[in-house]
Amino acid sequence: MVRVAIAGASGYTGFELLRILSRHPQVTVTTVTSRAHTGQAVADVYPALRGHCPLIFQNTTAEVLTAEADLVFTALPHQAAMGIVPDLLSRGVKVVDLSADFRFRDPRVYEAWYQEHTAPDLLSETVYGLPELYRDAIARARLVGNPGCYPTSILLAAAPLVKRRLVDPRTIIADSKSGVSGAGRGLSLATHFCEVHDGFKAYKVAEHRHTPEIEQELSALAGEQLHISFTPHLVPMTRGILSTVYAQLRPGVTGEEVDAAYRDLYGTERFLRLCPPGRFPSTLQVRGTNYCDLAWKVDPRTDRIVVVSVIDNLTRGASGQAVCNMNLMMGLDEACGLEAAPWMP
Ligand SMILES: NC(=O)C1=CN([C@@H]2O[C@H](COP(=O)(O)OP(=O)(O)OC[C@H]3O[C@@H](n4cnc5c(N)ncnc54)[C@H](OP(=O)(O)O)[C@@H]3O)[C@@H](O)[C@H]2O)C=CC1
Ligand SMILES: CC(=O)N[C@@H](CCC(=O)OP(=O)(O)O)C(=O)O
């Protein structure tokens, strides 16, 4: 059995890790931490977990987290994660970090969009945790930076087009809509029920922090530095992200070539489902799962391709992908614990 600890287990992604791992046949969760809930039973804080998690929250320290663990998930806000990860690694555990602190190869990019990086030396060994692109490196890593939710949905949609050079990568536009749980469990006016319910708005237009993360990965695939347009929106639903990605096809590229690119890259993937022709996916069809469902169409009037992807922000966009990465890092089947079907409606 693999022993894992979860730092920040009282947040939404922490809960989602506990939900998934409660059914994982090869994992025992030994330790969960939260500063505000130290000493309280998980089942008292989250009644949904009664009968599934007998643990008591402990304080968030490296010593507590590593006492009985082979791997630690850090489900903490940015900055707090890089404050503790070096200590965790020095105590001999592997780490999957769900924050943005270890997603960037170049600390200058992180510092331009977030804040000073306090553990920049670790970035050269960190692996970006998107299994479809970095499976082998993830399996060898001791520190994985789990991707952001929007980047996961956009990169999976665009990767075959950029990798196969089917589009002009400088024309990529990504337009994404997220459920409110993407903002975490903390209280803020922006996610207050009355501010969100029955409405729909764009936010952080042309300045969202996921932009450089998407650009880092698309640039690596394209072999040139890219800048893309990315607009996130908040929609009044609890879970889910739907991203629509547009790009100009290179002259002469056919629908058959596009089809072959998606099938070649994703045909054997366990958590990537290509929709039948003409069917575009809904966030409802991936809820609570690690699936990314994708559909695309060429618009011959404009020579643009339109790709639509859906994920659950808390599962494929965070904790499900984190568990998949853990499986790879610990030599387990990557789908272990992640195979349940979505719920509907
Ligand atoms: N929600 C989502 O869809 C996604 C989230 N993420 C990222 O995952 C991470 C966790 O997100 P999420 O679960 O939504 O966040 P939440 O706000 O729901 O939970 C954050 C957790 O971290 C703890 N915490 C907060 N501040 C600190 C601190 N300074 N030091 C130590 N612990 C702290 C909190 O507990 P306590 O205060 O009691 O210690 C809580 O358990 C974030 O980095 C987020 O950006 C990534 C992808 C998707
Ligand atoms: C709806 C909503 O607020 N979403 C969050 C998504 C952030 C996230 O989950 O990822 P990081 O770990 O990269 O912060 C946002 O836009 O900031």
Structure explained in plain terms:
This protein has 345 residues and is of the alpha/beta class. It has 2 domains: 2-125, Rossmann fold (3-Layer(aba) Sandwich); 149-313, Dihydrodipicolinate Reductase, domain 2 (2-Layer Sandwich). Helix content is 31%, strand content 20%. The chain is built from 11 helices and 14 strands. It has helices at residues 12-21, 42-45, 62-66, 80-90, 107-113, 131-140, 149-163, 193-196, 210-222, 255-266, 315-329, and strands at residues 2-7, 27-33, 57-58, 71-74, 94-97, 127-128, 143-145, 173-178, 201-202, 229-234, 241-248, 272-274, 292-299, 304-311. The strands form 2 sheets. The chain has a 7-stranded parallel sheet, sandwiched between helices. It has a 7-stranded mixed sheet with strand order 9-10-8-11-14-13-12. The longest helix is centred in the middle third of the chain and has 15 residues, at 149-163. The protein is globular and about 60 Å long. 47% of the residues are buried. The site of NADPH dihydro-nicotinamide-adenine-dinucleotide phosphate has 29 residues, from α1 and α11.
